[in-house]
Amino acid sequence: MKNIKAYLTQLLEQIQNRNPGEPEFLQAVKEVLDSLQPVLTARPEFIEEGILDRLVEPERQIIFRVPWVNDQGQVRVNRGYRIQFSSAIGPFKGGLRFHPSVNIGILKFLAFEQIFKNSLTSLPMGGGKGGSDFDPKGKSDAEVMRFCQSFMTELSRHVGANTDVPAGDIGVGGREIGFLYGQYKRLRNEFTGVLTGKNLNWGGSLIRPEATGYGAVYFAQEMLATRGDALEGKRCVISGSGNVAQFTAEKLLDLGATPVSFSDSDGTVYDAKGVTREKLEFVKTLKNIKRGRIVEYAEKFGAEYRAHATPWAIPGECAFPSATQNEIDEDDARTLISNNCRVISEGANMPCTPEAVDVFLEAGALYGPGKAANAGGVATSGLEMSQNSMRISWGREEVDSRLREIMINIHRNCSQTAETYGAPGNYVLGANIAGFLKVAEAMRDQGVV
Ligand code: NDP
What we know:
By secondary structure, the chain is an alpha/beta fold. It has helices at residues 4-18, 23-42, 45-48, 51-55, 104-120, 141-155, 174-188, 208-225, 243-254, 277-290, 295-301, 330-338, 354-362, 370-373, 375-390, 396-420, 427-445, and strands at 60-69, 75-86, 92-98, 127-132, 164-167, 235-238, 258-259, 261-264, 267-270, 304-307, 318-320, 343-345, 366-368.
């Protein structure tokens, strides 16, 4: 194939026509395709054998009705999804998101990213994602339970420990995983590792709740080490205040850095004095138990609250976007750079727009894309699956050291791949190519399926 650029342009056009109204999916696919040019030049058989044409089409997409009854006795109907994108290197694996913004395009982008992320972990996991436009916010525990039971009643037909293993994501934490697991067990009469993120008492893994945030910090640590630098003493801007944000802050504190912000969909808290362990405990209780708003942090500790604002104008040497997709645009990226931010480690999935990524790369910042930087979560889910299969539980230190080792290996793999393909320091290119190669080779081995 002589003209790779023309092939990729045509493929992207075809994907655009086939998936109208799915901008996030197209954004994720375009980024990967753009990165793959050098590898396609070296390995034209990937084009000739239709690897890319197959890779951009999910193996299966399931959409279903989720009826449930609220506390007032009224019937409510949401939509449920599961995207089983690629099982080339293992059972489908990826989280469930419950958020009103959920639609098929968003889940396809997340499932597509997951293919490469899971490949980078070096564990045998394919790519998937699912969820619903259900909003757990403002619902009682009983309503969330009834919704989860209804959702799993349909989903149970499509998942299984060796088929597809969902986990949490936005709006799906320990409470939701518990309700989903209980219903699966009841329907199937089997106690298996069908979900990860389970509670410790019934098949969960130590460090799984912490893993995404800890991993994003370990990845930042590795990036900084390439410049002989460390996190100690750095001021760190964090967005979000959920699972990933909380454990990012925790690991930063362990390493002597200073988190200075949290946010939620209503606004941002800027704590110029720095988040301490005591303040972090308050956030955990506020968000995980009381299910309150982050403004209460500002009220409690006298920190500055910026209503309807994101944290990107806050000065800090490092940024950990940990809320949602496209939360940093080009202007935000320029503001971060002009405030001397030189490390961006993505806890969230695709939190930076393509223009923002360009700003970071042009400025020579250490930019760790989500599919590498936040892979610690799914990697530890993989470790949970292993423990379930072996019916054993590893200790906290063992899991944490495996997580640390996996993040070091992902960093090394991305970094070396970027160098091999002529773009040293470009973790986007490194992550996309390294993640792709393993999946592409597996697809070749398995024939046209
Ligand atoms: P949580 O539901 O625990 O927390 C999400 C946080 O982000 C909340 O503070 C929420 O605020 C905020 N947020 C969500 N959507 C928006 C929005 N549209 N605008 C502004 N703020 C928003 O989710 P997680 O911490 O688990 O997930 C955060 C990110 O990390 C997501 O991108 C997810 O895909 C990614 N991720 C998570 C993994 C995991 O293991 N959990 C693994 C890998 C990636 P509010 O409460 O107001 O909605």
